[in-house]
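Throughout our pipeline, every protein is held as a single compact record rather than as scattered files. The remainder of this section carries one protein's record, kept here as part of the documentation.

===
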Amino acid sequence: MNILFTAVGDFLTVEARACLMEWRATYHAVEQMPMGRVTSYLRLDRASSLAMVDAIVCMADMDAEYSARTVRFDLSGDWLIGDGLFARLDSPLQKALVLADDVRKLPETCTMQDGRKWKSIPFIIFSSRASSAASRRLNVSILPPSDPAGAVSAVARVVDKYHESVLADYEALGILVRVEKGRVQIGTALHLKAEGAESEYYHAPGDRRTHTR
């Protein structure tokens, strides 16, 4: 898997470092990025249009002594307060959900190299707290903290479901999808991809592949 990894605050916990080390050791590509840079990277950085990412993973647990030092986010969205989801609006989980909200509000034209929309990829939060209301509203997965092997397995299950939805979209838009020896091959079907084709996960004008082989 290709994972964009971030964490609440300006530091990484021991648990987060352990996950990074084991995930990379087991051949997952993990790009680490400060939380405050994620939205601007996805929206403005040209490198994001050339990336191929399967999930954004955010660690949202930290010691209470650091909570006052973390970055404050704009909480203008009424639902963050009106639904009474959290007693502490500056909690790590709250900050992670604000970032998830920013990602879900990205433009439809904000895509990766293969035309997949950044706003539609899995957003996974590891937190000891849970909020089913926020999960449904933002379409995020809030998972309990786990050992590195268990955490990457949980991420893989979410990513597998996402890939199934993306491949179904490809087929519906006229892109040939076939499985050869356990690997998915993607190419043109009876015609070239429609320049204006769009779905929940895919935006054709952002697809930089040629589909010639």
The mean pLDDT is 78. The chain is about 30% helix and 20% strand. The chain has one domain: 2-159. The two ends are 23 Å apart (CA to CA).
